[in-house]
Amino acid sequence: TEVAVRLEIEGDEAVVTEWLTTLQSPEKFQVIKSLEMELDLRSREAEPQAECEITVARWFVPDSASSSPSN
């Protein structure tokens, strides 16, 4: 079973990039399915700002007791 979420993130480019590195985790059966990131060139912040659209998915093993038909 897969559960996926789509997020829109904005913030300091370095912070957003660091956070993204924590999402990809084969041990947790979690992956980044899609990622679009661009710098916000209109921002007046001192640090470069990023706008990001991301889809993250996690897979779960179905409970075998609940997936089998009951007699």
What features would you describe in this structure?
It is a single chain. With 71 residues, the chain is α+β, with helices and mostly antiparallel strands. Helix content is 18%, strand content 45%. It has 2 helices and 3 strands. The protein is elongated.
Strand order of the largest sheet: 1-3-2
- Mean pLDDT metric: 88
Taking Cα atoms only, what radius of gyration do you get, to the nearest Å? 17 Å
The SS-based structural class is: alpha+beta
Q: How is the quaternary structure best described?
A: single chain
Which percent range fits the helix content?
A: 10-25%
Q: Sketch the topology as an H/E string, one letter per element.
A: EHEEH
Task: Tell me, briefly, the overall form.
Answer: elongated
Q: Compute the number of helices.
A: 2
Give the N-to-C terminal Cα separation.
24 Å
Low-confidence parts: none
Number of strands: 3
User: In percent, how much strand structure appears in the residues?
Assistant: over 45%
Largest sheet descriptor: 3 strands, antiparallel
Secondary-structure blueprint of this entry?
Elements: E1 2-12, H1 13-21, E2 30-39, E3 49-59, H2 64-67
Antiparallel strand pairs: 1-3, 2-3
Features:
3 strands, 71 residues, 18% helix, three-stranded antiparallel sheet, single chain
Q: What's this entry about, in short?
A:
The chain has 71 residues and is an alpha+beta fold.
